[in-house]
Specification:
This protein has one domain. 94% of the residues lie in helices and 0% in strands. The protein has 2 helices and no strands.
């Protein structure tokens, strides 16, 4: 193999080309590659943070949903207790009102019975007095007396 000037010239040119590429072309390419690598790493980190935030948000949403369900259950339980209490109060009030009406009706009935008895007594007394007057005005005859008592008895 023959080493001639062309080969030496090409070697020098290749070395100069490599030096020029390493000095002027390679640093911007590596900077651009490094920037792209950093951008990808940041994107992946943000995606990881986003995924973590999404998991936290899902946990918080689940907790809020659980709390809301518990609160709804408590509100329903309170409403049921209040409804039961209102029903019991209404039953008690109705019972008291019924007892009051019943007592008033009984008192009114007793008064009417008392008035009817008094009217009846007064009427019987009037009839007795009337019968006694009629007996005394008539002659004392057993048969007439019996007829008069029968008439009085029919009137009663």
């Amino acid at each position: 193999m023959d080493i001639n000037a062309t080969l030496i010239g090409q070697t020098i040119m290749f070395i100069l080309f490599v030096w020029f590429c390493m000095r002027f072309i390679w640093p911007p390419i590596t900077q651009s590659l490094e920037a792209r690598r950093q951008q990808i790493a940041d994107g992946l980190a943000q995606a990881e943070r986003g995924k973590h935030d999404l998991e936290l948000a899902a946990k918080r949403a689940g907790q809020v949903l659980t709390d809301a369900r518990q609160q709804a259950a408590e509100i329903l339980a309170q409403a049921e207790r209040r409804a039961t209490q209102l029903i019991e109060e209404a039953k008690g009030n109705a019972r008291e009102e019924g007892e009051r009406v019943l007592a008033a009706s009984r008192a009114e009935l007793e008064q009417q019975i008392y008035r009817a008895k008094e009217d009846l007594r007064q009427h019987v007394a009037e009839l007795a007095v009337s019968g006694a007057e009629k007996i005394l005005r008539r002659e004392i005859d057993a048969r007439a007396h019996a007829d008069l008592l029968g008439t009085i008895q029919d009137q009663l």
